[in-house]
Amino acid sequence: MRIERDAQRFRQIVKGIIRNNLKEYIGNGDLFGRQGGKEIKIPLPHIELPRFRFGEREQGGVGQGDGDIGDLIDQDGDGGRQDGDQSAGNQPGEHQLEVDVSLDDLVDLFGEELGLPNIEPKGEDKIISDKYKVKGISRVGPQTRRSFARGYRRALQRQLGEGSYDPTNPRVIPIKEDMRYRALEKVPTPQTNAVLIYMIDVSGSMGEQEKELVRTTAFWLSAWLQRFYHGVEERYLIHDTEAREVDRDAFFQTSSSGGTAFAPAYELCWEIISQEYPPQVYNIYPFHFSDGDNMGREDTAASFELLEKHLLPAVNMFGYGQCRGSGKDEGHYLHDLKKFFKLEGTSALASAKIRAAKLYQRDDIADALQHFLMTGK
Length: 377
Prior knowledge:
Strand order of the largest sheet: 7-6-5-8-9-10
Low-confidence stretches: 44-50, 345-350
Structural class: alpha/beta
Shape: extended
CATH topology of the largest domain: Rossmann fold
Largest sheet: 6 strands, mixed
Radius of gyration: 31 Å
C-alpha cells in the first residue's frame, strides 16, 4: 500500500536525521528524562509537515477576491500587514516534530555510527536456566495454555461430520472433547549475565554538570550492554575518603566536602565481586568517574595495586572517566594511570582491559563511549 511505503520512507528519513545528529543526541541527557518504557522522544527540528490553514469565508487573500493575472503579491514586502500598531512579524515560525524511537533502534544506530564491535562474553561457563517452548498440541492441559483457534477448528470439523452445522445459522459450539492445549517442553538455556559497577567521586569539586555527564554516559553504557546479555545488574558506589554502596538516585545526588581517596572504592568493588559475582559466570564491567584529584601518591599506589592484583584479572574491562571538576587544574590521576599501566602502545593485560577517557563536556561523551566499548569484550 502507498501509505505503508510513505510511512517506511518517513522512518528512513527520521533514521537518517538521527544518524547525522547522533553525537548531539548521545550528549543530550534531557532526552532520557522523557523516556517512556522502551520509547524515547526525539525532537527533529529539520522536518516540517505540510498542512492547510483555513480562513473565514469571503475574507479574501491569495486565490480570492479581485485581481488580474500577473499581479504581484505583497508588493511592499510587509507580509501583507496593514499599517497601524500591530507588531506581528512576517517570518514563519520554527516547527519541531517529536517522534518516538525505540531504544533498541537508537542503540543500534549508536553502535553503527561509533563503529562498535559486538560484545563477546568471556568465559565458557554459563548460568543455566530452564525455559519452556511450545512443542506440539495436546488434548489435555491448563486453561492458560488453551488454543482457541484449534479448539474452534476441531468443533467445526465435528459439527460438519455430524451434519449439525447449519450454514444459515453458523454457530460453532466447542465441547470438552474439542479442546486443544499447547504442550510445553523444558529446554535448559545458557544465559550470559553481566554486572555494571559504577563508582563516583562525590567530593565537592564534582558538581551537577559533572554528574550529568556521568549520568548520560552510564545510560549509554547500560543500554549497549543490555543488547548482548540476558541480564544486566547495576551496582552503585560513592566515595570520598570512604566508600559505600547506595541506590541509583543517591549515586547522582550525594555530595561531600571531604577529601578524595580511590583505594576504598576499588576495595569495596572487589569485595562485591568476590562475594557475589564469580568471574567464571559473570561478565563484570566496573566504571569509575572522578575529577582525578585524589589524596596523593599513597592512595594512588594502593588503588593501582588493587587494580593490578584483583580487579583486572576478574573483569572484562575497567573504565575510568575523568571529569574536569570545579578546580582550575586538571586532576593528575588520569596521567598517572596511563603512565603506570603503560596504556599506550602495549599489549599487556592492563592495556587490554583498562580504558581511560576524558569527560570534560557533552561533546566528549560519544568519544569516551567509543573508547570504552571498542574492546568488544
